[in-house]
Design brief:
Blueprint lengths: L2 H11 L3 E3 L15 H12 L13 E4 L2 E10 H4 L14 E7 L4 H13 L2 H4 L2 E7 H4 L13 H8 L7 E8 L7 E3 L2 E5 L4 E4 L6
Parallel strand pairs: 3-4, 4-5, 5-6
Antiparallel strand pairs: 1-7, 2-6, 3-8, 8-9
């Protein structure tokens, strides 16, 4: 997953990198070839004119609040491959973008526990959760037999913290994708459910 490269490169060089869909696709109508993805590619990468992440549907406020910080993240399993290495980026004051593909409840709990143990939740200013195929498109259930979502587990595992959390569907696997600049200042407003880029991502 490109999450490993884009966060490591940004951390080491200070250059803005971009999280986006894999162009090696098999369902083009919902991937890079969708109208939304092509529009976002043009707005973000070609024109550099995107000021906000445009919505494709309903968003969900998980914890209210407004926060600003530098963008970081992507696929959580891949991001954690950098932990303990020289390529692990600082998480202080960051807005953490999270998405995943094939994962399940126990694995996610382990990943979130690792984030907490390395101090991420004490340092970040907010979390934005994208599309998670194995939770959004396939049903997973807790021990009581109730359907559970990725964002439910994130909210529970961060209950000691007060940073805002927003669930959106504009980045991740098997969905239409925007292109997220990694390494620029942005504002997460979980009240109005908006994500606004505050700084330029092309010099």
């Amino acid at each position: 997953d490109n999450t490993v490269l884009i966060n490591a490169i940004q951390h080491k060089t200070g250059l803005v990198t971009f999280h986006g869909p894999d162009p090696n696709i098999h369902i083009p109508q919902v991937y890079l070839n969708s109208n939304y993805s092509k529009k976002e590619l043009r707005r973000v990468l070609l024109e550099g004119s995107a000021k906000q992440v445009e919505p494709t549907g309903v968003r969900k406020t998980l914890r209210k609040g407004v926060a600003t910080g530098q963008t970081i993240g992507g696929n959580l399993k891949s991001l954690l491959k950098l932990a303990g290495t020289q390529y692990w980026p600082s998480t202080k004051g960051k807005i953490l973008f999270l998405e995943a593909f094939r994962t399940e409840i126990r694995e996610l709990l382990s990943q979130l526990t690792q984030l907490e143990q390395v101090g991420v939740f004490k340092q970040i200013h907010g979390i934005i959760i994208g599309s998670v195929f194995s939770f959004d498109n396939e049903k997973q259930f807790d021990k009581r037999g109730q359907r559970i979502y990725y964002e439910d587990i994130v909210l529970d595992k961060t209950h000691k913290y007060d940073f805002p959390i927003l669930k959106i569907y504009e980045f991740g696997h098997r969905c239409e994708n925007t292109f997220i600049p990694i390494g620029i200042e942005c504002e997460l407003d979980a009240e109005t459910q908006t994500i606004t880029y505050l700084g330029p991502y092309f010099q």
